[in-house]
Amino acid sequence: MEKNVFDWFNGILEKMLLFLGVSQHHIKYLEILITFCFVFLIAFAVMEIIYRISFFACKRILHRRNYEFLHYIIIGKRLRRLGYIIPPIFVEVMLPFVFTGRPTLLHYSENITWIWFTVCVVINVNTLLIAIGESAFTNSKYHDRPIKGFIQISRITVLLIAVIIIISILTNKSPVYLIGGLGAFAAVLMLIAKDSIMGFVGGFLLLENDMVRLGDWIEIPGTEINGNVFDISLTIVKVRNWDNTIATIPPYTLINQSFINWRGMSESGGRRIARGYTLKLDHIKPCTKELLQKLKDFDSGLKEYIERKYEQLKKGVVCNTSNPDGIADGTIDTNAGLFRAYADIYLHNHPMIRRDMIIMVRTLEPTENGLPVQFYCFTTTTEWCEYESIQSEIMEHFASVMPQFELYPYQASGARDTIISGFIEGQFPIEYIDGLPYKTTK
Predict the structure, then answer these.
(1) From its phi and psi, is residue 101 left (phi > 0), alpha (psi between -120 and 50) or beta?
(2) 206 vs 197: CA distance, rounded Å
(3) Is 262 within 8 Å of 387 (Cβ atoms)?
(4) Is it the case that residue 23 has pLDDT exceeding 70?
(5) Which helix (H) or strand (E) is 218 found in, with range?
(6) Domains detected in the chain
(7) What are the CA-CA distances from residue 124 to residues 50, 76, 79, 155, 302 (Å)?
(8) Arithmetic mean of pLDDT, 7-29
(9) pLDDT attached to residue 392
(10) Which of 78, 154, 158, 194 has the fewest beta carbons closer than 10 A?
(11) Closest CA to 143 of 216, 62, 199
(12) Across all residues in the chain, what is the average pLDDT?
């Protein structure tokens, strides 16, 4: 049917050219040229019609359902770019009828059309990948994923395949032969572009193993890089440090050396506090009845703890750790044990400390400065400012209540301490000395 249509069209065209006085010698060439241009016009007209129908259909679908991907397809003339693939397909189908009896022209025209088609495929794939990336970035499920890197890998892969296909069309060779000949070229490329290739491979491994995501807080020991990742590509990772400076890192740096990713902390919803004081050893002593009574009056929770421990002692139960009665970690034998028990009770009752995570008060190995006591727990927030506020409040509170237990933290003496000591040794009235330690006088 197509052949009949073309014969009919060529007959009318020949009569018109003869009527216009064109010589018989030039009529054949003009017929081919005009027919080819006419096929081109029809191809682009078909593309425009399909584009308008598709655009109207997408609008109707988006009016009823909010599909993010479809929304990003129709913005920025992307849907029109997707239609670029229609003209080469239409032209390729019509070429045998345009160049009937002219195999040489048909061969070269088909090669050019296939190259045109390959370029349009690359444009289509890139357009779809960009739309996928933007829709995924706005999706709460994928917004922290390094989609940009995967899209770059896909675009580079498609481009390489397209280049191989175009070269195979121009040389009239199978793509298999071209791929086989890339071995020597790859060896030379490794020497020339070693850093770029390492960055590409490192970026791919970084994305494939999900080592870093957008928004992750990372820290590289031994460097000043400590902040949030805000951009990830195949060749670069950008980090906004806490002082608002921006650091750029090649991906292979994160592959070749260790770094800390605080994502687990953020996802858990709790941030660790692991701080403490070093108690003076010469102030750690057995508890007296007077001290126990004073501490009962000091805190109701501690009073309940002391009474329950007395009940356990009467029954012969001496458990302090993993206590079956659920009593806090500590002992009533020493003032340091009572302080540990008080700190444990305080942390368990603190509204900003998570009870579903570890809460522990422990002593570490003694040092030349005294006995370290560490408070180990997790806050209910991971926000930096809120976390620091909670941590500061807890440490300040424990520092203020230590004298109630007749305990004091180690602190290196300074010039002020030497001067005060001289006043005291000279029997200067204590009430006139400013800056004496808390609870020094009653």
Answers:
(1) left
(2) 14
(3) no
(4) no
(5) strand 217-219
(6) 2-180 (no CATH), 207-262 (2.30.30.60), 271-411 (no CATH)
(7) 15, 14, 9, 11, 72
(8) 53
(9) 94
(10) 194
(11) 216
(12) 78
